[in-house]
Every structure is written in structure tokens, then in C-alpha cells.
From TrEMBL:
The lineage of its organism: Bacteria, Pseudomonadati, Bacteroidota, Flavobacteriia, Flavobacteriales. Pfam families: HAD_2. It comes from the Bacteria. Gene3D superfamilies: HAD superfamily/HAD-like, Putative phosphatase, domain 2. It comes from Algibacter agarivorans. This is YjjG family noncanonical pyrimidine nucleotidase.
Length: 229
């Protein structure tokens, strides 16, 4: 599919524009200090990051609710490193984490440059599986909300990427045809396969050097979008 037809560009938010891992690590550092948790942050994150990804996969697949995800990812990480934490503390930390997460708003390199560049010729949009109240804060506090004509999150639609319903909802909200649209995201399963399944063009933001057998456009820095758009 030629990008000459493209009028609307849809971005994922976390791990694509908003540097989730960096901001999340800073949030944990802050809440551990507030709650006097004496732990090695590096050891904790080593276990927490893959556990969090596992639970987000379950959340995407409708196998776990939001509150259960928030508790279990923390509880499992503490158990993995042998740190004894009562349920009451885990619940408090999960609340503190959400409160403090959006006080850190590091974006990936060249985010502003590429959004400035693209916004001249394209309508820009967000499609995210993240929680509505948190995603709104991320967009406003990182000062990128003004670039986006629409923001579709999974809580509005009742399903998550890669479910085709969320992509179709986003297209309808943006009032654009699938043939004029392209999806950019870091999750091969949620963003790339999800969008491709409804016939949408895609660009894979690949920070982990995944080797793909199929002919999918890939970038590892946002500025490389200039090659395609």
C-alpha cells in the first residue's frame, strides 16, 4: 500500500511516544522513597518489567480486570524477589504508582520533531490500551495532546487492541477510511497485527530488533518516519 494515499496517522502512546519504562522506573523510585521501601530498584524492575508485560497481555485478552492487574503485577514482583509485603501495602503502592506515574513525562527521542513534521500534512490520532484517566494526563503533561485530533482508548470501546473493534471505532471517530490510514506502534501483536487485520497500513516501532519474516516497514527511531510519510 502506498503512503501517498495516507491522510491520517494513528499512534500508540506507551512505548511508542511516551517512554513508559523510563517514567515507570522514576515513579517506582519516588514511591519507594515515600513509603520507606528498602529495595534495590534495579532488582525490582528486573522482575517487574516482564511481569507487567505478562499481565498486560492477559488484560488485552480480557482475562483480567484493571484492578486485578494493578495489584498482581506488584505483588508478583515482590514475591519474585522475596520481599514480604502485606496486601494493604501493595494496594497503597499500586495507587501511589498511578498517582506519581504522570509526574514524569519523558518522551522518546525526536517525538516533538516528528509530530511537528507530520502535523503539517496529516491528521494525527492516538489508539491506546492504557487507562483513560492516566493516558489523558500523559498527553497533557508531556505537552503533546494538541497534536492529536482524536484519542481512542480501550475503556471507551470496551475492548483492547488487537481487537478489530477498537481500530474501527478509532477510524469512525476520526471520520477516515481505513485505506487512508496508517498505524504506528511498538507492540507487534496489539498494534501491527491488530491494524493489519482490518486492512490498515502499519509501521512497526521496533526497539528490540525483532526479526520479522514478513514485509513490514520498521523503524527504531521516530525520526525515521520521514522515510515513509
Amino acid at each position: 500500500m502506498s503512503s501517498k494515499n495516507i491522510t491520517d496517522v494513528f499512534f500508540d502512546l506507551d512505548h511508542t511516544l511516551w517512554d513508559f519504562d523510563k517514567n515507570s522506573g522514576l515513579a517506582f523510585k519516588e514511591i519507594f522513597k515515600i513509603n520507606s521501601i528498602n529495595l534495590s530498584l534495579d532488582d525490582f524492575l528486573l522482575h517487574y518489567v516482564p511481569i507487567n508485560l505478562k499481565y498486560w497481555k492477559l488484560y488485552r485478552e480480557e482475562k483480567i480486570e484493571k484492578e486485578a492487574l494493578r495489584f498482581a503485577r506488584l505483588n508478583d514482583a515482590f514475591q519474585a524477589i522475596g520481599f514480604q509485603a502485606e496486601a494493604r501495602l501493595v494496594y497503597k503502592l499500586s495507587e501511589d504508582y498511578i498517582t506519581h506515574l504522570t509526574t514524569f513525562n519523558h518522551l522518546f527521542e525526536n517525538t516533538f520533531e516528528i509530530l511537528d513534521y507530520l502535523s503539517v500534512n496529516y491528521n494525527l490520532h492516538i489508539i491506546t490500551n492504557g487507562f483513560e484517566e492516566v493516558q489523558h494526563k500523559k498527553l497533557t503533561k508531556s505537552k503533546i495532546n494538541q497534536y492529536f485530533k482524536t484519542v481512542t482508548n480501550s475503556e471507551m470501546v470496551g475492548v483492547k487492541k488487537p481487537n478489530p473493534k477498537i481500530f474501527n471505532f478509532a477510524l469512525e471517530l476520526a471520520n477516515v477510511n481505513v485505506n487512508q490510514s496508517i498505524m504506528i506502534g511498538d507492540s507487534y501483536e496489539a498494534d501491527i497485527l491488530g491494524a493489519k487485520n482490518i486492512g490498515m497500513d502499519v509501521i512497526f516501532f521496533d526497539l528490540n530488533n525483532m526479526t520479522l519474516d514478513i514485509d513490514i516497514k520498521q523503524i527504531d527511531n521516530l525520526i525515521q518516519l520521514k522515510k515513509y510519510l
